[in-house]
Amino acid sequence: MNFEFRSVLRNGFLPGLSVVCFVLGGVLNPFNHFLSALVLMLSAVGLYFAMVCTVAEGNWLDIRAVFTGVWLFTVGLAALRLTGYQEPWQGKTWVLLTVAYAVFQIGAGVGIAVGKKYYPSLREKVTGRVFGRVRFGLRKERLFSICLITTAIGLICFLINIAIRGYVPCFSSSPTAYLDFHTPFNLFANATIGVSGLCYYCLRTQPLTRLQKGCLWLCILYSVFVYPVMVVSRGNFLAAAISLTVAVFYLHRERLVALLLCLVVTFGVYEGCARLRNYSDAQLDEFFEPEQIVRPGGEDTFALSPRMAFLYGYLTVSHDNFNEAV
Predict the structure, then answer these.
(1) Which whole-number Å values give the CA distances from 192 to 155, 183, 228, 232, in the listed order?
(2) Which residues, including other chains, have CB under 8 Å from residue 218's CB and lie 6 or more apart?
(3) For the chain, how long is the longest CA-to-CA vector?
(4) Residue 62 predicted with pLDDT over 60
(5) For residues 71 and 171, what is the distance between their CA atoms, to the nearest angstrom?
(6) pTM for this one?
(7) Using CA atoms, how far apart are residues 77 and 124, in angstroms rounded to an integer?
(8) Which of 7, 4, 11 has the alpha carbon at shortest distance from 54?
(9) Which helix (H) or strand (E) holds 294?
């Protein structure tokens, strides 16, 4: 009992400290939003590494550590208010964001603990059981077919979308090509790209012929690079790239070098997709309204460049939209 209590205390201390930092950022924000942002962003970096080294036991992709780093850092970025459309957040927004973080950490902690304790025995009991006319079985030999069929569905929907719209966004000079390309088929095409990680898992763990391996590599190439670039969608690319990165990281013994290499490639392709949107600097200035910030102790001003404002808006707009909804 004492051991379990110490374990709960150890695993709950850093998430609890994160909540305290979040509350501190929210309290400081109405008085000095730059100081509030600094507290949140420094806390994000420090707590991420602290969680990796303690709670996550060296796992750089532990969901509790990653969520802490991303959540606190992006909220801190939003607190800077570097664009003209951003407004000071209501107190209720800060409360809800803090509660959301706490609930996620509790759920993740309980889920991981319960999974480690009960999943092996539960899987053994359920596998092979018959539920009515359905026989439940976890058979790895089905993975290749699942990867192939899922990718084929996405490709077919993409081709249908091209036939409907008559163009491919990547080869269009229109700044609204990405938005205008949307149809119901686009939803199915987008939904299939997350299979990239499963494809890599299948490659590394299953006995496959050369032809099957070649097919899976083509599936990964299409899901991660070809489709997102053709539709000029950074969101789709990130979804597919993160799925693949997680698989690569865990299947290569959680090596940091594998994670860093994936992140470098991800950032490069992300920037390429952003430039393919064909937005001019004048249009980006109009969209994001970079704020003129007066430097401390002088009359000099600072403003984000149009491209940086584009990236900044992408990272922070969901939090600002949430505040609007509140």
Answers:
(1) 9, 15, 12, 16
(2) none
(3) 76
(4) yes
(5) 35
(6) 0.74
(7) 46
(8) 11
(9) strand 293-294
Long-range contacts of 316-322 (CB under 8 A, 24+ apart): 316/74, 316/77, 316/78, 316/86, 319/74, 319/75, 319/78, 319/97, 320/78, 320/85, 320/86, 320/87, 322/93, 322/96, 322/97
Q: What is the DSSP letter of 131?
A: E
Q: H or E stretch including 301?
A: strand 301-302
* pLDDT tens, residue by residue, 198-253: 999 999 888 889 999 999 999 999 999 899 888 888 788 888 989 998 898 888 87
Those residues whose C-beta lies under 8 Å from the C-beta of residue 113, and which sit 6 or more positions away, are none
For 130, the 3-state DSSP assignment is strand
Identify which of 292, 311, 318, 307 has the alpha carbon closest to the alpha carbon of residue 84: 292
Amino acid (one-letter) located at 172: S
